[in-house]
Amino acid sequence: MSDIAKPATRPDDPRFSTGPTAKRPGWSPENLKDALVGRAHRAKPSKARLKHAIDETRRLLGVPADHRIAIVPGSDTGAMEMALWSMLGARGVDVLAWESFGQGWVTDVTKQLKLADVRVLEAPYGALSDLAAVDFCRDVVFTWNGTTSGVRVPDGDWIAADRAGLTICDATSAAFAQKLPFDKLDVTTFSWQKVLGGEAQHGMLILSPRAVERLETYQPAWPLPKIFRMTKGGKLTESLFAGETINTPSLLCVEDYLDALAWADSIGGADALMARADANAAILAGWVERTDWVDFLARDPATRSNTSVCLSIIDPAVTALDAEGQAAFAKSLVALLEGEGAAYDIGAYRDAPPGLRIWCGGTVEAENLSALLPWLDWAFAELKSTLRKAA
Fold first, then answer.
1. Rounded (10°) angle between helices 44-61 and 269-289
2. pTM to 2 decimals?
3. Would the pLDDT of 4 be above 90?
4. Is 114 left (phi over 0), alpha (psi -120 to 50) or beta?
5. CA–CA gap between residue 219 and residue 252 (Å, rounded)
C-alpha cells in the first residue's frame, strides 16, 4: 500500500478514450427516438437528414461555400483513402509522419499505390516533422493532430497560399477542437466519433475547388473500388455532396451526429468546443507541471494537442525497467484505474511509447477531468509501492 489515500470522489463519467470519445453531456438514447431507422437512405426524408448533416457541418465549421462536403464510408480512414487513391499520382508527393496514423498514409502511398516520386518527412513520437522542408510544388499529405502522439501542427501559416500541389489533411482529432484554415486545405477529412463523440463508421470528406479540379482532370493509373469513385464521365458526382451516399449509411448514426451538432450549436458552436478543449488540456497541463512522475510526450508546448493528450511515465523507478517492464507498468496503471471505475481506455496507442493517452476534447466535462487527477496519483503510488516490494 502507498501513503496516498484512495480518492473519495470518482469522475461522474470515466470515459476518457480517444475514440470513440465520450458522448456529449446529457446524451441519452432517447435523443435518437426520431431517427429514420428502417427507412431507405434514398427516401426523401432520409436524404434530407443526410443533407442537413452536411449543411450543419458546413455552418458550424465555417467551411467555405465553394467547398464540397460528403458523408463517406469507412470513417476518417475511408475518407482519406478515397482522396489518396483518387488524386495522388499527378505529381510528386511529400508525406509527413510523426505517429502511427501518418505512418499509415506513408504505407498507402509507398507500398499500396507504389508511387515513384515520394518524399517521406518523418519525426519520432513527441516531435513534429520539419514543416519548412515541405515542397508545395508537390502534393502534401499530413495529419493535423497526431492522435497517437499528441503532437499537432501549430497552425496553417506553414502552408503556401500559392501552392501548386494539393494539401490532403487528416483532421480527425482536430476538427471541432482546433482551428482549420480551409483556404489552406484542399482535402480535409474527419470522423464523427472523435471530437463530437458520434458513433463510428462514417467519415466526412471536404474538397476545395482545386481538389475538384484534380478529380475532373486526372485519371489514376490504377482501378478504383466503387466506394472510392467520386466522378462519372470525367465530372464530379454532385449528388454525393448533397447527401446521396455511395453505400448505405446508418440513419441512427446520422441522427446521433445531428444531435451532437445541435448540442455544439447550443453551447456556442465550434469556438465554444475549442475553448472547452483548451480549458481541459490546461487542467491536465497544470497537473503535469506539479507532478514529478509524468511528463508530456509532445515536447514543444506550441505543437501539443488539446484533445489527444499523451503522457510518459518518467519516474526513475519505472524508467529503470526494460521496455517490456515499462509497458507492463503502464498497462497495470490503466487496468487499475479501469477496475476502480475512475478512467476507461486511457492507455497509450499500441504503436506508441508506453504511457497514458487522455482525451480532453469538448465533450469531456472539466470537473470529470479534475476528479481524475487524484486517481492518477493514487494509482501510480500503489503500483510504485509494489515495485519497491519486488526490489
1. 60
2. 0.96
3. no
4. left
5. 35
Cα–Cα distance list, 231 to 119, 217, 242 (Å):
28, 10, 14
- List, for residues 84-110, the tens digit of each pLDDT value: 999 999 999 999 999 999 999 999 999
Q: Map residue 167 onto helix, strand or coil.
A: strand
Measure Cα distances from 72 to 36, 85, 167, 205, 229 in Å: 18, 14, 19, 7, 11
Residue ranges, CATH 3.90.1150.10, the chain: 268-390
Which H/E stretch holds residue 280? Answer: helix 269-289
Q: For the structural domain made of 29-264, what CATH number should be given?
A: 3.40.640.10
Q: What is the CATH number of domain 268-390?
A: 3.90.1150.10
How far apart are the C-alpha atoms of 188 and 359, rounded to whole Å? Answer: 22
Helices marked H in 88-218 — which ranges?
100-107, 209-217
CA 191 to chain centre: 7
pLDDT over 90 at 244, yes or no: yes
- CA dist 206 and 63 (Å) reads 8
* Helix 75-87 × helix 100-107 angle, to 10°: 40
Q: Which cell numbers in the block locate residue 76? A: 476518417
